[in-house]
Amino acid sequence: MLCCAGSLWAQPKPQQWQMVTQPSYHEMLKGFATPPNQYAQTLTWGLEGPIGRDNISRDLDEMYKQGIRAVSIEGGYGMPEPYLSPGYFENVKIIVEELKKRNMHLWIIDEGKYPSGFAGGLISQKSPELRMQGIVVSKRLRTEDNQPLSIDLPKQTLSAVAVNTSTQENKVLDISSGKLNWPATPGTWQITVVDHRFKTSVTRAANNPTHGKDTVNSLIDYLDPAATRKFMEYTHEQYKKYIGAEFGKTVLGFRGDEPEYGFTPWTPELLKIFKEKKQYDITPYLASFFIQQPTEEQKMAKADFFDVWSDLFRDNFFKVQADWCRANGLEYMVHIDREDMLMQLVRSEGDYFKDMRYVQVPGVDAIWHQIWYDNVADFPKLASSAAHMYGRPRALSESFAAYRPAPTVADARWVVNEEMVRGINLFEYMFWSSSANRKEGAPASQRGYLHDTAFVKLSAYSNRASWLLANGIPAARVGLYCPTEAMWTGNKMADSTLRVIGKQLLEHQVDFDYVDNQGLASDFRLQKGSFTNLSGQKYTAIIVPSANVLSADMIARLKTFATGGGKVIFAGEVPGKMTYPNFLHATDLPKQPWVTYADWTNLTSDFFAQLPHDVILNKTAPGVKYLHREWKNADLYFFFNEGKEAQDLQVTLNGSGSVTFWDAETGTTQAANGANQKGNQTQLPLQLKGYETRFVIIQH
């Protein structure tokens, strides 16, 4: 029986590494040189070839020498004992035994390759009724001037719409009789008919002899909790049989990878659930999702549809797994797809923050050149913001799998720092292939940056730095609203202005979290001009980029926030609609007197002066970024100079007391010279070489 939250079984008490903590200065100092291995970075270990105890031990010894203290196993190609077979699990048991001997830890990638959710092909083979489904175009028919049409439709047909090819006018067709009847009508029209059917996004499977991406092994219906439980019966529950005694000890959790829809989702209960949530029938609108120029009404209906299916994705896929992991003393960490391209993400994933709402370790990936010296990117803040908003200490980046050219250790360090200063504090370095599949005599220099002797220092550095950044309470006071709801309506400016405003904030040393409708409308505690998230972090300013529509609940709470002393700034297109009772029937939203307005194309000094600052530089330095966390009796500041030019700065920091620099590479500390106290602030000189980082700790 699959045990989830809500079971009568007692829930394991969370361990320190699983909780947001606020330790003291001396507690952090005591652990700094050798942080607990549960906080260690991990690497993807591909189980390929004839796996056995000898090559398992050899690989782990090599990894340990490189500073690695945790691994993420992925079932791979060429194993004599196929993925998810009894022999495979016996090898996993050996891995856990060998890890335990070395005080190392294990994350389990929940699929043999990717994306998560096909159980190595067992869903298609044993549970085909639970396969993924979608809404697809079944017919496109063309009629000329006054040409009538009448055809019988199969029972799975959902909707039809006719579009005039000259004017783009469209007409929703009534097909409730099971027939499509098109009367003689002037003009040329294209009729689009849609139905639902079994359909899957592509998968790459360890058990697929082609080693390619195809649709042979279907994913589950992510919107059906029974399908998710069946997937876990084939995977998670089998691991539990073999290594469950080490759950929460040697085994830290499961890691998911890129669950996504490459098309419009469907699940058998969707129409019923939609009507319960939105109080109207979505069926007539479904075909309009597949035409180029839908009406505003049809765009709003599509937004309602995305709102509903993203709720189902959150509750019936991600939450089911998170609940199971929590009930078994584990963490569920996962990243989805296209985190660096939000307009594409909302089509394939629904809503990043809904997906991550119950996930213990939210994630992104930077596996190709989404982040590089010439491509500074802020999307890692999606994962750290989700962690901050919803009370999680860790945020994941799956990193470097497909960088071309492959990174050197110096390159990897720069990318790691770029992400850490945006809140990432758990890296899965990629990729370590099992020595069972390695050509004899292949030198380390041909096996990539993970095998370079210089990686030992990066490993030590990232382990200590990430431990520092996983403790304490995040201290950013600005929330930048992520307008997913506007993106569902096709509003590209919502995405563009979000990126520009976020970039400008960081270049002016104003740290922020992305915040979402869930938090602002209901989940955050609202009192006296502040929103407090589930980490205990307080936002005193909320910035809304371009958005044509906001939820009524969010508007009501923003008004209370503003009238209590909080700052609300609309910095783009002013929302003209309020989703009450739903998107389709959204009501007009007049300008609000409690809102301050700004122009995202010209964010002036007056704009930045309205915002809370915990770091002030004596000169402009857009390449210097920082992160601030609060301990019980100290403030941690992490600085990174993203540019190659050295920076000689005077900085003013919130918090007063004795100041030390902590070196995450060596595990040593040094008193800072020249620091002066002024009220509750500290002023000090800060020199940063090109690409250099610095941890500044102020002990109260």
Automatic annotation (TrEMBL):
Listed InterPro entries: Class_I_gatase-like (IPR029062), Ulvan_degrading_GH (IPR053161)
- Taxonomically, the superkingdom here is Bacteria
Spell out the Gene3D superfamilies in the cross-references. Answer: 3.40.50.880
Name it: Alpha-L-rhamnosidase-like protein
Taxonomic source organism:
Mucilaginibacter yixingensis
